[in-house]
């Protein structure tokens, strides 16, 4: 899914809140919900996927959702242990980007490009940091939570807490690497997803 503010949609204003984003996604993807489907989301994408699944459940579309794959994000009911950073002065915000090591180095070394992407980066941080969890019944589809063995941002217990968000099967899988393990472990990650999807479709 290509969200506003990215690549060929770079000039479009990015979303800064998760609810309007989820409503827009639900409407845009509606034509594809007439067949079994699954969501995979990493970090912020996990939060978006989860809330989109909940949005669909209130719309009567949840039945076709066969699996949720949540990667690199604590369970949504757990509070964020860190103070918000999306509104920090530019120099402090850039330091936070460097600490997280999620922004490509070529971007960090190009001041002009970084300025172009700054609104998007702040908007992404705002989506996560302004998120407020509200309780609803657990989803009926299985959930698999993925994590990096050296991820300092998300602990094993924070990943395990995803189990409370499903009344179905729950699995937890770990891979070598830090918060962005999925880049180097892409092959292993895709095999794990394929196996779980096969089980869900049987």
Automatic annotation (TrEMBL):
SUPFAM superfamilies: alpha/beta-Hydrolases. It comes from the Bacteria. InterPro entries: AB_hydrolase_fold, TEII, Thioesterase. Residues 2-193 form the Thioesterase domain. Belongs to the thioesterase family. This is Thioesterase.
